[in-house]
Every structure is written in C-alpha cells, then in structure tokens.
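Consider the tokenized backbone below.
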C-alpha cells in the first residue's frame, strides 16, 4: 500500500505540488480565522440554571427549587451529570453535557424542560439560564473613576447605560455589574401604627403594588374630537409612595406616610468591591461568548468603551482592572518567537548535515506545510491558538524533520544499492 502510494506521488508530481500549495494557502487562511487566547478552555460543556427566591433559607431552597429542578432536568439527551447547589435566597443547577454536544442545542433542550418544571415551583418563581460563556470567559474587568458621584449614582450609570452599550458588542455574552448600591424605595413600617389601624404587612404591600400602575379608560367623544382617558399612577418620587391610600379610618384616609416612613436606599448587599485598598468602586465584568476570539473581542470592547466615554458625565472615566489581551499577546509573541528560532536552527542543522540543497529543501518545505495543516485541524476541532497548542506544534517540528531525514536517507540508500547493482552488471 505504501509502495503504491509513493509510486503514485512520483508519477503525479505536479498534482502533489498543487495539493501541497493548496493546503499551505488554506492553512494560512486558517491562521487568521483561528481564535486566539492565552490559555486553553478546559471547562465542562455545561448549562447553568439560576433561580432566586429572596429571603429563603438554603433548606427551603433545596426542597422547593433545587430538588424539583434536578429531578425534572434528568433524562435530557447527552447529559453526563447534573449538580445542584442551594444557598441563602439562590439556587444553582449545573447541567453537564457530553463534549460533542452543541452548546446552543443543549441550552434549547434545558429551556424546554424548564417550561415543564416551572409548574412544580412556588408561584412567582421563574428560573433563568446563565450566560452562554465558559469557565475562562471572564476576559475583561473595569471600574468607574467617578470621584464626584456617590456609589448609588455610579451603579445606576453602570446598569442603565454602560452595561447595555457594551452588550451590543458581537461576542459578548454578559456584562455583570458589581459594587455600589442598587437604588430602591424603602418603606419603614411602624408595627404599632399598623396595629392601631388594623392593617397587615400584606395589605401595605398589595396597596403599594396597586398604586404603582397605569390604567386605561374608555374613549370620550366630544363634538368632533375623541379623547382617550388614562389613569397615570406610576411612581416618580418618594412623595408619590407616601400619598398612596391604604384604607379608611373614621372617614379619614390612611396613607403610607401615616404608618411609616419612605426613604431612598440601597438593596441588600452580600459584599463590596474594593480597588487597591482605596475604597469602594463600581464596575463590570465582560463575559465572552462560547467559541469567540478573546483577543479580537477585547479590542472591540475597548473601541466601544471609547464611544461610551463620550456620553459619560463630566469627570467620569474607565479604569481597567483586568485585560487578558496583554497576557494573550505576550504569551503568543513569546511562543511565536521560540517557534521561529526553532525553525531557523532546524533548517541550518539540516543543511549542514546533509550538504545537499535539494534534499534539505525537500525536508525544510515540510515544516510550513505541516504547521499550516495543523491550524486547519485546530479550526476543524474548535480549538484556539494558545500556549498549549502552539507549544505542541513547536515540539512536533523535531518529529517532522526526523521523518523527512529518515525518508531522504532511505531513498539515497535504495538509489545507491540500485546504482551499485547496475554498475557490477
């Protein structure tokens, strides 16, 4: 079989040269398309299901959310394992799929099961899927430098302007906000006044919810004009909450301000984000989508941040805390430099030891063609150019050259034997 293959290649040298040239061009094209990262993605192929139920203990979360979800998510095709974690007010379910399962197909199947499993959860609880990122998807961290703004204003600016702008960059799965205070209206109820007016906490909650609403009316026609009647009730400030009616007592309306106080405050926090021991800051974490080019994506994020900077209030700017592109470029440049050094040394050694330019050329030309084919295979298997893959290519150069030298020496031996046999005859 090998003899026939070699004979076929020798009889069709032009076709072999054209095929090798085509593979080289295809490989160079694949080099530009191959994703670039500093470290390989060794994380599991998983889908995360997140459910929040504020104020409940881990045991309640486990019994009423995590266990029903884990039970109903079993049986999905290509699932290797399902892990559940319950904590105070939150539930996480990790659905681990086989490595050959497409991540977006897996997310679709999990969502189908969630539509069924939600019927067994407490009323008003809706599980959601985590971002379509990986364990190494946190590629960029930043925080705001805003000395003239308090933490609540910074968090509002991050949540309602910066976050939405950065999420429009192709390849970004999520921009997770951290730090600061999430602004909210807080009603501090006096229990003595509640008892005096014979009201319950549920009465107060339901009336405030009903009071924060717009309602539609009918159309009123007057002459040749028609007017649409609407009831505008959305809350715009804390005074609107204070004036919401809760009931009547002796013909006098009871309002929210009669049973407590209304204030603007921050949501409950489980931690803070500190920058270099200089105080709290507000910022975000950019999560890369599965299979994206980290180096290219970070460049696009920086361009978008430059555009967003133009719309920020005066005195507000970005400070970068973690930028993986620096690690990527340094690691790739180091490996590429070593790779070129190794190729140069190998080429000189081959030329010096063989002392025959045609034989040396036939061996040296295998190096770029083999490396180009390696990038074709990297793209085919969805692998990125990183420290591990490029180091493997560098280590394989010696094997490539060894095979070429062995084949050349074997060819010369057979030619020498053939010439000697014909000379004696």
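A designed sequence for it:
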């Amino acid at each position: 079989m090998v003899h026939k293959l070699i004979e076929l290649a020798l009889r069709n040298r032009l076709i072999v040269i054209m095929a090798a040239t085509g593979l080289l061009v295809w490989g160079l094209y694949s080099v530009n398309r191959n994703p670039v990262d500093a470290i390989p993605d060794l994380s599991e192929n998983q889908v995360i299901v997140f459910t929040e139920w504020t104020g409940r203990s881990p045991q309640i979360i486990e019994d009423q959310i995590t266990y029903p979800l884990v039970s109903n998510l079993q049986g999905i095709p290509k699932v290797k394992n399902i892990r559940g974690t319950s904590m105070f007010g939150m539930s996480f379910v990790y659905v681990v799929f086989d490595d050959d399962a497409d991540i977006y197909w897996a997310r679709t199947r999990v969502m189908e099961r969630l539509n069924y499993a939600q019927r067994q959860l407490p009323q008003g609880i809706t599980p959601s899927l985590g971002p379509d990122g990986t364990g190494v998807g946190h590629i960029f961290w930043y925080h705001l430098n805003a000395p003239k703004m308090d933490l609540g204003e910074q968090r509002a600016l991050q949540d309602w302007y910066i976050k939405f702008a950065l999420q429009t960059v192709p390849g970004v799965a999520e921009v997770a906000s951290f730090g600061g205070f999430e602004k909210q209206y807080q009603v501090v109820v006096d229990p003595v006044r509640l008892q005096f007016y014979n009201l319950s906490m549920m009465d107060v909650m339901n009336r405030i919810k009903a009071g924060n609403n717009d309602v539609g009316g009918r159309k009123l026609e007057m002459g040749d004009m028609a007017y649409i009647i609407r009831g505008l009730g959305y809350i715009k400030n804390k005074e609107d909450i204070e004036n919401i009616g809760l009931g009547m007592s002796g013909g006098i309306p009871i309002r929210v301000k009669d049973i407590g106080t209304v204030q603007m405050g921050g949501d409950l926090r489980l931690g803070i984000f500190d920058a270099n021991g200089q105080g709290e800051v507000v910022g975000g974490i950019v999560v890369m989508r599965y299979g994206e080019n980290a180096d290219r994506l970070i460049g696009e994020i920086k361009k978008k941040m430059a555009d967003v900077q133009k719309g920020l209030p005066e005195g507000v700017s970005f400070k970068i805390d973690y930028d993986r592109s620096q690690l990527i470029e340094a690691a790739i440049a180091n490996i590429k430099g070593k790779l070129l050094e190794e190729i140069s040394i190998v080429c000189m050694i081959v030329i010096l030891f063989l002392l025959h330019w045609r034989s040396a050329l036939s061996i040296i030309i295998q190096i770029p063609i083999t490396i180009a084919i390696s990038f074709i295979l990297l793209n085919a298997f969805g692998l990125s150019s990183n420290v591990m893959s490029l180091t493997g290519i560098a280590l394989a150069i010696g094997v490539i050259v060894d095979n070429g030298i062995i084949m050349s020496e074997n060819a010369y031996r057979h030619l020498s034997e053939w010439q000697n046999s014909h000379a004696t005859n």
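The radius of gyration is 34 Å.
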